[in-house]
Specification:
Number of strands: 5
Strand content: 15-25%
Helix content: 55-70%
Radius of gyration: 26 Å
CATH topology of the largest domain: Alpha-Beta Plaits
Largest sheet: 5 strands, antiparallel
Length: about 170
């Protein structure tokens, strides 16, 4: 590879590391091209980025403020999946693809600026999505009002039933 190409790749990777606060390092040993294309398509459909990288170039591109623990995982075949918005959604896609095809494993990552070892990845993938949490919050906020409304309507419903029974009796 020419020096100019290496420099441009290092620059692109450093920009990607700066713009994304969540990314996962993946080991894709023995992954066929067809599965790689399938994974890339799934990630692209959800606006995620997937790149296979050279370890030495990635180490050059890493920011200084990233944990040193991350540097030891740049060995062997390495790919990086970047998440700009929904890091939990990316973790779910990677977990599902990994369990489906058995060719992908998570080495480590950075989750919202914090180092994420491979053991914690499953916990991240099992978290509820932002939309689910907002829906639960909305339900919890509206539940007391709904209960109050039903309590106020109960005497009117009882009165209506009582008048109906009185009418049928007469």
């Amino acid at each position: 590879m020419k020096k100019e190409n290496k420099e441009s790749q290092v620059k692109e990777l450093s920009e990607a590391f700066e713009s994304h606060d969540t990314f996962y390092l993946l080991d894709f040993m023995n992954m066929p091209v067809s599965q790689s294309v399938q994974l890339r398509r799934r990630l692209r459909d959800q606006s995620y980025t997937f790149r296979v990288i050279k370890n030495r170039l990635a180490l050059r591109a890493l920011r200084e403020d990233l944990p040193d623990d991350l540097r030891e995982f740049f060995q062997g075949p390495t790919a990086i999946a970047f998440a700009l918005q929904d890091p939990i959604g990316l973790a779910r896609i990677l977990r599902d693809f990994s369990t489906e095809h058995k060719v992908l494993s998570i080495k480590a990552g950075i989750f919202e600026g914090q180092f994420l070892p491979a053991q914690k990845f499953e916990e991240i993938a099992n978290l509820a999505s932002r939309e689910d949490l907002l829906a639960k919050l909305g339900f919890l906020m509206s539940y007391p009002l709904t209960k109050l409304l039903r309590t106020w309507q109960a005497p009117l419903d009882s009165l209506g039933r009582l008048l109906s029974q009185l009418k049928t009796k007469k």
